[in-house]
Amino acid sequence: MKKLWIIANFKSNLSIQQTLEWIDAVGPLLERHENIVVGFCPRFSALSEAAKAVKVGNYPLHVGSQNVSPFNEGAYTGEEAAPFLKELISFSLIGHSERRTHFAETDEMVSEKVNRVREAEIMPLVCVQNAETPVPAGCEVIAYEPVFAIGTGTPDTPENAEKVSKQLVDMHGKINVLYGGSVNKDNCASFVKEANISGLLIGKASMNPEEFVAIVNECTLVVQ
Ligand code: PGA
Which residue, by CA, sits nearest to atom 1 of ligand 1? Predict the structure, then answer.
């Protein structure tokens, strides 16, 4: 039985209050399942309150960051370093295509960020845009997110996503590949049914608590 990661990426959306409302709406509806990992990535300034709310509610939710500094603590104005994030998160998105496009993030920076989070014992979740994107050593979970599918309402086909995921698995060995790009409650199962797709990274649809819970439920049926 494969294990699935279902990860919400709020991007630069949702106030702290809205994030807490999301947690209160989603948390009580999630059942603990040994083959499903459910996580969400709020904005940096909502992380602390989010982590607290998950702990108080004892919800089966993992908190992740959307980014991390390529440096540890020190004179790096405006950056969030892994040793500090460690108090709040268990995983970190790294190398999302929006960071590469809007913030000039390079493969070298992605690799440094992976090093920093691994040193802090935080799981890196590196986003790759295709099978040619470098995957730093030590990554166990990555997300295939084709740029054409992100936020467009036009997902990749499950067949092509499976083809790319298989290529990534063949190239990088024991690695779990998530699919991301215009996933919603109606198409989610078609991706996770594929042999080499081990979960989903969801942007827009994840911000609606009912839709996110529906996605988790659809995926749970696939691994039951
Ligand atoms: P989307 O975003 O689900 O809104 O397409 C996915 C992502 O960028 O992680």
Answer: 203
